[in-house]
Design goal:
Strand content of chain C: 25-35%
Number of strands of chain B: 0
Shape of chain B: elongated
Strand content of chain B: under 5%
Number of helices of chain B: 9
Number of strands of chain C: 10
Shape of chain C: globular
Largest sheet of chain C: 6 strands, mixed
Order of helices and strands of chain B: HHHHHHHHH
Order of helices and strands of chain C: EEEHEEHEHHHHHEHEHEEHH
Number of helices of chain C: 11
Structural class of chain B: mainly alpha
Strand order of the largest sheet of chain C: 6-7-8-3-9-10
Chains: A alpha/beta (272), B mainly alpha (276), C alpha/beta (276)
Helix content of chain B: over 70%
Helix content of chain C: 25-40%
Radius of gyration of chain B: 22 Å
Distance between the termini of chain B: 28 Å
Distance between the termini of chain C: 37 Å
Largest sheet of chain B: none
Oligomer: heterotrimer
C-alpha cells in the first residue's frame, strides 16, 4: 500500500464575498498520485499553478471539494480523532520562508521541542538530549540551543525547521519551496541534508518547487503541475526530457545553460 | 542613525521620568492612610474654607475637611478603579478578541458587529445612558466604562491574531500536533501582550479621565467619598472665593492623565506598536 | 594601466566600513574591477558576501554618517566617490541605472506605471509629458513588451513580477544609461520570466552598447550572460576570470565548491561542466 494516495482531488476557489460569481475557477482539477514509503515526488509548477494549495490539502489544512487524500490508508479528512493524531505525527512540513516559520520569541530549543512536548512524555533531560541530537543531525550544535531566530542565518533557520519536522520521526514531509529562497551554496547543502535524512530514516518527501534542477536532484519521480492540473508524471529525467507536452517543452527551453559554451541567450557571435 | 539614537534616548528619558511619577503616585495610593494628616471625611464646620496651615497643608473645604487628605484618599479611588476598569476591559477584550480572530467566520462577525454597535455610541454618552437605566453610583459607572472599553482591546487583539494566524509557525505548530490551547499559550498570547501593555498605558489616562468626568457630573462616586472629579464638583460653588478647592484635584487629574499618555506614547514609539 | 582608459566604469581599491558602537566592521575590502563598453560583468557570491554593498557603493547610496568608503569609483573617468548628493542624483537613473531583485518595491503602488515611467523620463530629460509618453511607448515597443499603451495604464499590482521587471528594465533603458547595475534581477521570477528578462537585458546591451554589472548567485544566469566574472566571499574578491576560464578551470577553492555543489540537469550532456 502506498504511503500517500491522492485520489481525484478537486478544489474550487472559494470567494469570501457574499455574492459569488457564476463560474468559480477550479484551483485543483482531478489530481491523483501516490507516494511510496521512502521516495520523493517532486512537483514542479510555476507560481499560481496550485502547488502550495495542493500541499495544504495533503497536510490536512485545506479540505478539498471532491476527492480523497489517504495517508497510510486512512482518509485524512474523515479520520477519527485518534487516527488524526497519528497522522499529524507522521506527516510534517517545511515551508519556504524559514523566518516566518519560527516564533521569533522562542529559542531554538523550544522550537524544536514543541512537537516532542505534544507527543512524547519525556523528562526535561531526555527532551534536551533529544533536541541536541536533532540539532547535530541537521548540522548545528549544542551551542545553538539557547539562540533566538534572529541570531541564525536563513540556511541555519531552515535547518532548525527541518529538525522540528523530523523530531517525531515522521513518514512523509511536505517540502513547500523549502530551498527556494536560499542562495546556491546553502541550497545545495540543505538538499544534501534532506537527501541524507531520506536515506537514513526512510523518509518520503513531497517536494513542491518551481526549480527543476533542485527537484531533480532529490526526486525519484517528477510531476508537472500547470493551472491546477497534474499534466504528467515522469519516473526519470529522460522521460521528462522526452516529453512532448508544450508546457514541459517551454519549461525545458527556459532552463539556463550550465556552461557558458552552451549559452543560448547571449550567443558568442554577439560578443563585443 | 545618530538622530535616531538621540530620539531613542529622549523617549527613554520620558519613559524613566513618567514611570517614576506613576510609581510615586501608586505609593501614595498604597500609603494614603499613613500619609494623610487628617480623616478625609471628618466634617468640622468650625474650620471650613480655611487657608493652608500646618494642620491642613492645603486648607479645608466647605465642610471643613482636609483637602490634602481628600486628594490622597482620592488617588486611591481614581487610580484604583481605573486599574480595575483597565484589567477587566483588557481581560474581556483579550478573550473575545482571540476567539473572534482565531475562530473567524460567523463567531467573528457576530462579536465584531456587536462591538461596532457599542463603538458607534460616544463612550461618555453610553455610560450616562447606562447610569440612567441602572441608577447613579460608582458600581454602575465602572461597569459602564468596562463595557465601552473592552471593544477597543478586542479589535486590536483580533487584528493581531488574524495576522499571527497566517504565520507559518502557527501552521507548523498545528501540524506538529499542538492543541489550540497550546498555540494560544505559546504563540499567540506572548506576541500580543507587549502591544497590550503599551495600549493599556494609554487607556489608563482615558479611564481616569472618564471616571472623574462621571463623578463631576454627579453620576459616579457619591459624597462623602473623596474622589477628584467629585471634589471639583463640590468646589465648583466656591470658585470665586476659594478656587484652590477645584485647582488641586484638577491638577492631579491633569498630571496623572498627561503622565500616562506620555508614557504610552513613548512606549509605543519605542516598541513600534500601533494604536487602535 | 593603458587598458584603464577603456573602462566605462572603474572601481579601484574600494573599502567600505560600517561604524557601530562596538567599533567598525569591514563590509568589503580591496575591490578592484572595471567594465568596458557593452560588456557584462558577472558578480557571484552567496548572501552576505558584499555583492549588494558593492553596488550600493557605486551608486553612492550608503548612509555617509556611519559608513566609511575609501577608494576610487570612476564613470567615464569622472570620480563618483565623494560626489555631492545633488550631482549623484543626476547620475543615478540617467548614467547608471539600477534594477533590483523585487520589482514590486521599485514602483509606488498608488500611481499607474505610466505615471511613474513618464515622471522618471522627465526628471532626467527636458521632454514634455506628451513626448515622454511617446518615448516610453517606443522603448516598450522596441523591447517587445505587448500592448505598451495599455501597460502604462495599469497599476503595479495588476502585473506579474516578471512583466513588472521587464517594464522596469525598459524604463531603465529609455534613458540610455552607460551602465546598468542589475542586482539579482531574476531571483524572484519563475523560469520562463527569467528567460524573458535576460533576453531583454541582452537586447538592450546589443542595441545601446550598455555595460552591465550583473549580480547573481545563480551560476546559470552568469553562464548565460557574463563576459567576465568576479567571485566574492566575505567581502573580498577571491577570483576574477573570463567566464569560460572560470567554468573550465576554476582556480580558487571556493569557486570550485560553487561549481561542484550546484544542482545540475545536464551533467551527462554537457561534458565541460566542472566535476570533482
Amino acid at each position: 500500500m502506498s504511503l500517500l494516495q491522492v485520489k481525484q482531488v478537486n478544489l474550487i476557489f472559494h470567494s469570501k464575498r457574499l455574492f459569488k460569481g457564476k463560474d468559480q475557477p477550479k484551483v485543483l482539477k482531478d489530481i491523483s498520485f501516490d507516494i511510496q514509503e521512502g521516495t520523493c515526488l517532486g512537483l514542479i509548477g510555476t507560481s499560481g499553478a496550485g502547488k502550495s494549495t495542493l500541499g495544504r490539502v495533503i497536510l490536512g489544512i485545506q479540505r478539498p471539494d471532491q476527492g480523497q487524500v489517504l495517508f497510510q490508508g486512512h482518509d485524512i479528512y474523515k479520520a477519527d480523532k485518534h487516527t488524526r493524531q497519528q497522522i499529524r505525527r507522521d506527516l510534517q512540513v517545511v515551508f519556504q520562508d524559514s523566518y516566518s516559520s519560527v516564533n521569533p520569541r522562542m529559542t531554538a530549543e523550544s522550537i524544536i521541542s514543541e512537537p516532542l512536548e505534544n507527543y512524547e512524555k519525556l523528562t526535561i533531560e531526555e527532551q534536551r538530549r533529544n533536541v541536541i541530537e536533532l540539532l547535530e543531525r541537521v548540522g548545528l550544535s549544542e551551542k545553538d540551543l539557547k539562540k533566538y531566530p534572529h541570531q541564525f542565518s536563513g540556511g541555519q533557520l531552515q535547518r532548525i525547521n527541518i529538525a522540528r519536522a523530523i523530531a517525531l520521526k515522521p513518514r512523509l514531509i511536505v517540502l513547500d519551496e523549502s530551498v527556494s529562497s536560499l542562495d546556491m551554496v546553502t541550497q545545495s547543502l540543505i538538499l544534501q541534508l534532506l537527501s541524507d535524512l531520506k536515506d537514513d530514516y526512510g523518509l518520503a518527501y513531497l517536494f513542491i518547487t518551481h526549480d527543476i534542477k533542485a527537484a531533480f536532484s532529490i526526486s525519484d519521480q517528477i510531476g508537472m503541475l500547470e493551472k491546477g492540473e497534474l499534466l504528467e508524471l515522469y519516473d526519470s529525467k529522460d522521460e521528462f526530457f522526452a516529453s512532448k507536452h508544450p508546457v514541459v517543452k517551454r519549461l525545458r527551453d527556459s532552463v539556463l545553460s550550465e556552461h557558458p559554451r552552451f549559452r543560448t541567450i547571449r550567443t558568442w557571435e554577439n560578443r563585443v | 542613525m545618530i538622530a535616531k539614537l538621540q530620539y531613542q534616548l529622549k523617549s527613554q528619558k520620558v519613559i524613566v521620568i513618567s514611570s517614576f511619577i506613576l510609581l510615586g503616585l501608586f505609593m501614595v495610593t498604597l500609603f494614603a492612610p499613613w500619609l494623610a494628616p487628617n480623616d478625609p471625611i471628618a466634617v468640622n464646620l468650625a474650620h471650613k474654607l480655611q487657608p493652608p496651615s500646618l494642620d491642613y497643608p492645603l486648607g479645608t473645604d466647605h465642610l471643613g475637611r482636609c483637602t490634602l487628605s481628600r486628594i490622597l484618599y482620592g488617588a486611591r479611588i481614581s487610580l484604583g478603579f481605573a486599574m480595575l476598569i483597565f484589567i477587566s476591559a483588557l481581560s474581556i477584550g483579550l478573550i473575545i478578541g482571540i476567539i473572534a480572530g482565531y475562530k473567524g467566520g460567523w463567531v467573528d462577525q457576530l462579536l465584531m458587529r456587536f462591538g461596532d454597535g457599542l463603538m458607534a455610541i460616544p463612550s461618555l454618552l453610553f455610560v450616562i445612558g447606562f447610569v440612567g437605566i441602572w441608577g447613579a453610583g460608582l458600581k454602575q459607572v465602572i461597569l459602564g466604562l468596562i463595557l465601552v472599553q473592552w471593544v477597543y482591546y478586542a479589535r486590536v487583539i483580533r487584528g493581531m491574531v488574524l495576522s499571527l494566524k497566517e504565520q507559518n509557525y502557527i501552521m507548523a505548530a498545528k501540524i506538529s500536533g499542538s492543541s489550540t490551547w497550546t498555540i494560544m499559550k505559546k504563540h499567540i498570547i506572548p506576541n500580543v501582550i507587549p502591544s497590550l501593555a503599551v495600549m493599556g498605558t494609554l487607556e489608563m489616562g482615558w479611564a481616569i479621565m472618564n471616571l472623574s468626568s462621571m463623578s463631576f457630573l454627579g453620576l459616579g462616586v457619591q459624597p462623602p467619598t473623596p474622589e477628584w472629579g467629585a471634589m471639583i464638583l463640590e468646589g465648583k460653588s466656591y470658585i470665586r472665593t476659594n478656587p484652590a478647592l477645584m485647582l488641586y484635584p484638577g491638577l492631579m487629574i491633569m498630571i496623572v492623565v498627561v503622565t500616562f499618555n506620555l508614557l504610552g506614547e513613548a512606549l509605543s514609539e519605542r516598541y513600534g506598536v500601533k494604536r487602535r | 594601466m593603458e587598458s584603464k582608459e577603456r573602462f566605462i566604469l572603474n572601481v579601484r581599491d574600494l573599502h567600505v566600513e560600517v561604524k557601530t558602537k562596538e567599533g567598525s566592521f569591514k563590509l568589503v575590502e580591496d575591490i578592484n574591477f572595471g567594465i568596458k563598453k557593452g560588456e557584462i560583468l558577472g558578480l557571484v557570491g552567496e548572501s552576505g558576501s558584499g555583492k549588494t554593498v558593492t553596488s550600493m557603493s557605486i551608486l553612492q547610496l550608503h548612509d555617509r554618517k556611519n559608513i566609511q568608503m575609501t577608494g576610487s569609483i570612476t564613470l567615464h573617468d569622472r570620480e563618483l566617490n565623494g560626489l555631492k548628493n545633488k550631482e549623484m542624483r543626476k547620475i543615478r537613473g540617467k548614467d547608471i541605472a539600477f534594477i533590483m531583485q523585487n520589482p514590486m518595491n521599485a514602483f509606488t503602488p498608488v500611481f499607474t506605471i505610466g505615471h511613474q515611467f513618464i515622471e522618471t523620463i522627465q526628471a532626467h530629460t527636458p521632454l514634455n509629458k506628451k513626448d515622454a509618453r511617446e518615448l516610453a511607448v517606443d522603448v516598450m515597443k522596441s523591447v517587445n513588451l505587448p500592448e505598451p499603451e495599455k501597460l502604462l495604464k495599469y497599476y503595479p499590482f495588476q502585473l506579474s513580477g516578471g512583466m513588472l521587471q521587464r517594464v522596469m528594465i525598459a524604463m531603465a533603458a529609455c534613458l540610455k544609461p552607460s551602465v546598468i547595475i542589475a542586482d539579482e534581477p531574476t531571483t524572484a521570477l519563475d523560469l520562463h520570466s527569467q528567460l524573458l528578462v535576460l533576453r531583454l537585458l541582452e537586447k538592450i546591451r546589443l542595441e545601446h552598447g550598455t555595460s552591465i554589472l550583473l549580480i547573481s548567485h545563480d551560476l546559470g544566469v552568469i553562464s548565460e550572460m557574463a563576459d567576465h566574472v568576479i567571485v566574492m566571499k566575505h567581502g573580498k574578491i577571491v577570483e576574477t576570470a573570463n567566464v569560460l576560464e572560470l567554468f573550465d578551470n576554476p582556480q580558487h577553492e571556493y569557486t570550485k565548491k560553487l561549481l561542484r555543489t550546484r544542482p545540475t540537469l545536464y551533467s551527462e550532456k554537457q561534458p565541460y561542466t566542472y566535476t570533482l
